[in-house]
Amino acid sequence: MIALDNVTLTYPGRTGPVTALAGTTLHVRRGEFAAVVGPSGCGKSTLMKLVTGLIRPTSGTVAVEDKPVTGPVKLAGMAFQNANLLPWRTVLANVMLPLEIVPPYRQRFSRDKAAFQDKAMALLNVVGLGAFADRFPWEMSGGMQQRASLCRALIHEPALLMLDEPFAALDAFTREELWCVLRDLWQKLGFTVILVTHDLREAGFLADTIHVMSARPGRIVETRAVDFARPRELDVCYTPDFTQLVHELRGRIAEARQAA
Amino acid sequence: MKMKLSAEDMAPVAFTVALFVIWEAACRLFRIDTFILPAPTDIFAAMVKYWWPLLKNSFVTLWTTMAGFAIAVVFGIALGIVVGWSRTIYRGLYPVMIGFNSVPKVAVVPILIMWFGIGEIPAILTAFLISFFPIVVNVATGLATTEPELEDVLRALGASKLDIMRKVGIPRTGPYLFGALKVGITLAFVGAVVSETIGANAGVGHLMVQAGSNFQMPLVFAGLMALAIQGILMYAVFAAFERRMVAWAFRSSTGAGG
């Protein structure tokens, strides 16, 4: 579904051109849960912007659904470390925002508002926010805001969900809770995910495939299939195989940092 | 919520009363001539005696202020959106606006009077000129500081620049705009009165100049008092308006944090 082939991205920095990605190749199948891990500043976020078409590569090709990406792809939902909810809208209205923008929903928005509200409520119920739909984002905790942010990223049923360290600012317990929320949503709705993270346990628990990036200029130095049985429970994180996986990934990233 | 008034609620009243009491006491104690500084009792007496001219001229000042301010709001929001929309326009127009804003508006009033004659139009235009700048700057700032990640979220949905402005830019400008309105209305008021004192045939500024040339100092001060009351009321109206319109920007104590 997603194919980056030999992608290089250079942009003008303050002290001369900066190469964020050099010859990156990455393939993600439809419905796959892919995680990208790497040392900080390795161009993981750049990778996200390339896939969604927010920026264009300097060389190489980016294709989504077998079509080359020439502009914003319009089928992606995104969530970031910061929930970025609009403080003047209730949680429900925040979640419905994409429906006001993405066709064909936007044309029908005023007519089918009630139906869309039901749809948003159903999604909020799945993540356990049903009772908080009329709250404002600033009345909620960080974890709850992040749940709402996930709902906003998914309400228009995107084929692709892009997550840029969405749980990095949360405490350990909330983070594990939200791993399970994301796992359940993914299993229920079957979208494709690219999760950018620096949390190896997060990648190991959630992903089908883990791509390790090198330090800047970034490229994929290793791709690992994760074959723990689905559905996974948090207990899987405490098995020897899991520890082994995290340990090996840890080693690869240490090498990647050294190489810089 | 109890209806009992706390010391904090009473403080503004207490301080105002104290100010007048000290003023009155100072005038009596040091036998200050009414012609130099009238005591509050003299001023209040003048306010009662001349209530009709004061009220009539206050209305003139009020309407010229509001007319000038209304133009400033419309023009300020429009220009603010244009400036906030594009970095090029922002860069190009900003120095011009700074330069324009640096010119003391008192210096412009004689020109306006030459162009439009003595009357209400120079007052309206001065009120407009003095108050539109903070509105432009605040609206433009509100638009220009939209979170880039939020813009990415919307652009990845295929949102146009106009969509982003409508859904995010303009609503988030609200607190900046209403803050600017509060400052702007008092500035507009200053502009109208300045223009009236230089050349007008009505308004509180005009009344004060006339009273001054007739050596009626209590009436001059009564005029000042009328201006102060109007100023406070207008500020209060816009502050209340702000609270109503952008309540979300006053979030603080109720939140769970985060």
Describe the 3D structure:
- In chain A, the strands form 2 sheets. Chain A has a 6-stranded mixed beta sheet with strand order 6-7-8-3-9-10, with helices on both faces. Chain A has a 4-stranded antiparallel beta sheet with strand order 2-1-4-5.
- The longest helix of chain A is centred in the C-terminal third of the chain and has 20 residues.
- The model of chain A has no long low-confidence stretch (mean pLDDT 88).
- In chain A, a hairpin with a 6-residue loop joins strand 9 and strand 10.
- In chain A, helix 5 runs parallel beside helix 6 and helix 7 crosses helix 8.
- Chain A contains 8 helices and 10 strands.
- By secondary structure, chain A is an alpha/beta fold.
- In chain A, 35% of the residues lie in helices and 25% in strands.
- Chain B is mainly α.
- Chain B has a single domain, classed as MetI-like (MetI-like fold), CATH 1.10.3720.10.
- The longest helix of chain B is centred in the C-terminal third of the chain and has 38 residues.
- The C terminus of chain B is likely disordered.
- Classes of the chains: A alpha/beta (260), B mainly alpha (258).
- Chains A and B meet through strand 6 and helix 5 of A and helix 7 and helix 8 of B.
Brief sketch in words of this structure:
The complex is a heterodimer of chains A (260) and B (258). Helix content of chain A is 35%, strand content 25%.
> What is the arithmetic mean of pLDDT of chain B?
87
* CATH architecture annotation of chain B: Orthogonal Bundle
Fraction in beta strands of chain A: 25-35%
Specify the helix fraction band of chain B. over 70%
Q: How many domains of chain B?
A: 1
What is the CATH superfamily classification of chain B?
MetI-like
Low-confidence stretches of chain B: 253-258
Return the CATH class of chain B. Answer: Mainly Alpha
* Biggest interface and residues each: A-B, 35 and 26 residues
Distance from N terminus to C terminus of chain B (CA atoms, Å) equals 27 Å
- From the N-terminal CA to the C-terminal CA of chain A, the straight-line distance is 31 Å
How does the helix and strand content of chain A classify structurally? Answer: alpha/beta
